[in-house]
Amino acid sequence: MSTPTVVGPSPSGGGPVPSLTDNELAVLQRAAQGQTYAVIARDLGFAEKSVTKIAYRMARKLGALNITHAVFLACRAGLLDGRPRRHGDHAGFAAHVYRGEEPCEACLAGERAYRRDRKVARKAAKVHAA
Ligand SMILES: [Zn+2]
After folding, report:
1. What is the pLDDT along the chain (130 residues), one digit of tens a residue?
2. How many domains does the chain have?
3. Residue 56 is inside which H or E element, if any?
4. How far is CA 17 from its chain centroid?
5. Is the domain of 26 the same as that of 62?
6. How many whole angstroms separate alpha carbon 118 and alpha carbon 100?
7. Residues 31 and 61 in one domain
8. Residue 97, domain member (yes or no)
9. Which of these three, 54, 76, 98, is where a domain ends?
10. Which structural domain range is residue 53 located in?
11. Which residues make up the environment of ion ligand 1, defined by Cβ < 5 Å?
12. Is the pTM of this model over 0.85?
């Protein structure tokens, strides 16, 4: 008997989670809901063959052996928490940082606005205290 191979991302709290494209995430989320590639293809307006390719690429990225394994690993890595990702504010920015990603433009702008507001609020508080 051989030693089991450890595959996929480490469970939450561990190493970096591979970033998936929007299409890969869309396929993953639908697969996790039990949809077939045919149904996913119809929903997303793709050919079934394209969905199969996207699913294969996504599974490879996650270090999974097949789509079922990919769903399991993604679930464990917190990629399927069921909530839409928040963007464009401080919370969105913090979430990017937490996931070890480069924040998107909307979140960078939101974070700049947040810091600007904080600075203004701090100044106002100082003036008030003086
Ligand atoms: Zn963002």
Report:
1. 444 444 454 443 444 567 888 899 999 999 998 999 999 999 999 999 999 999 999 999 999 999 999 999 888 877 887 666 778 889 889 888 888 888 989 999 999 999 999 999 999 988 777 6
2. 2
3. helix 48-62
4. 8
5. yes
6. 24
7. yes
8. yes
9. 76
10. 22-76
11. 87, 92, 104, 107
12. no
